[in-house]
Specification:
The protein has helices at residues 2-30, 84-98, 116-128, 153-161, 208-223, 241-249, 271-278, 346-349; strands at 56-58, 65-70, 102-106, 133-136, 181-187, 190-197, 232-235, 251-254, 281-286, 294-297, 303-306, 326-332, 337-343. The chain has an 8-stranded mixed sheet with strand order 1-5-6-7-9-11-10-8. The chain has 356 residues and is of the alpha/beta class. It has 2 domains: 1-30; 37-349, Metallo-dependent phosphatases (Purple Acid Phosphatase, chain A, domain 2). It is globular, with a radius of gyration of 22 Å. Bound molecules: fe (ii) ion. Fe (ii) ion binds at residues 108, 138-140, 237, 288.
Length: 356
């Protein structure tokens, strides 16, 4: 009996080792590139704006509304397979501690060409919280530059659109990037905040068409809100020039080594910033820079948040001044938006990967 048991255990261990050895070759053998279905829906400046098409999240009366932003989660099918659980546990803690009403993800949810298992696992994990969530794309969500990802941009859209609690809606197909959409936060039918979710994708900058669409959307929101632009926020992946201007010269809200001067880094303003000033976008939120995070306000009272990176996958900052791991969250009351960072314990979630 004892011998029999030993034999079974030995056989199981052998099978386990063979399984692990075969996993990676099989993964690459079966590797297939999945293309999502293209849906042509072209934007024209003269088309009507339909506010009822915008997904809404309800803010409870006289209660704060919390948006938790997860930045650069950076899952990867193979390389991080043994660390995935750690990032899931970290997200668990972030949600338990901040109790969000909405979770946003500012891009680079995955970070390599092998993005199928990681995206499937992240979507399932986000769905398990049963809290509305809203991602935008970053420069790594469809793989690394010059390579073909397992899931292309359209397939990633399908993963998000098929998730019950995910508010993602693909935008028009002629903007140069597909993941542009809006969300309204409402309290008793009144819009409390409009969120502009902008796709940076693999682009370095926003496209001309994308900014035309954004202007059209901002105008539409204003017209549908009694002629007053709702207080708004914009979420996207890469920081624009104004972030760095605010960082160097803005009013310190949470900045290391702030220089406290009032001047701009350049004479011309980014188009996004101009649209923001005109249509009451009061908060710009981005990720992408793993090694720094800050909140700063500029001379026009616009707040710039470079979010705290979530999880150490894909590299993070070791530097003492900038070390950070966790998430930035926004507490929205009637008029104000309080911006805070929640830092997780380095000992608990450190996986020993260096900055890349
Ligand atoms: Fe990035």
């Amino acid at each position: 009996m004892k011998k029999g048991l030993q034999r079974i255990i030995t056989s199981l261990l052998i099978l386990l080792f063979i399984g692990i050895d075969l996993f990676f070759p099989i993964y690459f053998l079966l590797l297939h590139h999945y293309k999502g279905k293209e849906i042509i829906s072209e934007f024209h400046k003269d088309q009507p704006f339909v506010i009822d098409d915008i997904p809404c999240v309800e803010k409870k009366k006289d209660k704060d509304f919390v948006i938790l932003n997860l930045a650069d989660v950076q899952m990867c099918d193979l390389e991080d397979i043994f660390h995935r659980n750690i990032i899931h546990q970290e997200i668990d803690e972030l949600i338990q501690q901040t109790k969000p009403d909405l979770i946003t993800l500012t891009g680079d949810q995955t970070w390599s060409n092998e993005n199928m298992i990681s995206l499937t696992s992240l979507v399932a994990w986000m769905e398990s919280y049963q809290i509305p969530w809203a991602p935008v794309f970053g420069n790594h969500d469809f793989g690394n530059e010059g390579h073909t990802p397992v899931l292309d941009a359209l397939k990633c859209c399908e993963y998000y659109e098929n998730a019950k609690y995910c508010l993602f809606q693909r935008g028009p197909s002629n903007l140069g990037c597909i993941g542009n959409y809006l969300i309204n936060i409402k309290e008793e039918g009144k819009i409390v905040r409009t969120l502009y979710m902008l796709d940076h994708g693999i682009l370095d900058d926003f496209t001309v068409e994308q900014m035309e669409w954004l202007t059209w959307a901002c105008k539409g929101m204003k017209e549908n809100n009694g002629g007053i632009s709702p207080s708004s926020m914009a979420f996207f992946h890469k920081p624009t020039t104004e972030f760095f201007t605010a960082w160097f010269y803005g009013e310190e809200l949470s900045i290391p080594n702030n220089l406290k001067a009032k001047q701009r880094l350049k004479d011309t303003e980014d188009e996004l910033y101009q649209i923001g000033k005109e249509y009451n976008i009061q908060n710009f939120v981005c990720g992408h820079n793993h090694w720094m995070h800050f909140v700063s306000k500029d001379e026009n009272n616009i707040t710039f948040t470079m979010s705290l990176k979530t999880g150490e996958l894909g590299g993070y900052a070791e530097d003492e001044d900038y070390y950070g791991n966790g998430a930035t969250y926004f507490t929205i009351s009637k008029e104000e938006t309080l911006i805070q960072d929640y830092f997780v314990s380095r000992e608990k979630y450190h996986i020993g990967k260096e900055e890349e």
